[in-house]
Here is the input.
Amino acid sequence: MACLYHVPEGPAGAPIQDVNMSVNQHHLSNFQVTQDAIKSFANATDPRMAEVMGLLVKHLHAFVAESHLTKAEWLKGLAFLTAAAQITTDERNEFSLLSDIMGISSMVDVVSQPPGGTPSSVLGPFHNLDSHVKPNGCDLTQGQAGERVWLKGRVLDVHHQPIANAQIDFWQNADNGLYPAQDAEQDPQNLRCKINCNANGEFNLLTIRPHPYTVPTDGPVGALLAASNRNIWRPAHFHIIVSAPGYVGLVTELFPAGSDYLDDDTVFGVRPGLIVDVQQCHDAEVAKRFGLTTPFKEVSFDFCLVNASSV
Ligand code: BEZ
Ligand code: FE
Here is the structure.
């Protein structure tokens, strides 16, 4: 094959060492490019940066060699990245979405997960740093459409002891499947809040059942998903960030059991430990407080944080 980056292989898949000199020199010079490119990062001020960039170069070069990437394909890749940059704003980051749909965000979650804690999951683009702190036990529904769900739980340490002073940061989509950033009809604070847990690490709030939703498809990532005949949907989920002084913060999601796309999340965020049953609740006091009829729906989940000193 007349490909610039083709490394000829012998019958057992090993590089051929005794073919004509020009091919062999080509092979050696490609190898030299990789070594030189790795070395070019070795003097970075931050040694971790040297390590990460060296490994990135090593694996990207291996990808180029193994795929026999053509110049036309590489130019297409650069055009894709350029289009991603052009559509990216403060409100919309196409590179985060690319990371999500490539499974990179989830791989980073998996490899950086401290042992013993609740699994983490993707942050997604709709977190709002300005969510208001609301009282424990608040009603986020405010008369809007949607099946009521009483969401409750505790924040515990790895020994199952409650963590006092924990905070929950919560957000989800509305009954029409949209987040406030996608829907001018919604208040920016709709279905989102921060809650300070009580001394027993307990929190609860009234919300609605979330819905499956498609990732944004109007940019180059959407075109990539379409060209790949890929699913564009995420299963229904609640987003939660759990934090407490002295503990490793947790960015995660809860997925109501039975939702569509649980086994085909386009951003690979579902973990078995994050699928929650939606149960029938008969709590008359809660029903009375919110004007619900029993039984109503309840999701209960205890989050487990890892002590920062143990990582
Ligand atoms: C979301 O959960 O809203 C989301 C996550 C990743 C990419 C796009 C959307
Ligand atoms: Fe989401």
About this structure: The longest helix spans residues 47-67. Confidence is low (pLDDT under 50) at residues 1-23. The first strand starts at residue 138 and ends at 139. The chain has seven helices and twelve strands.
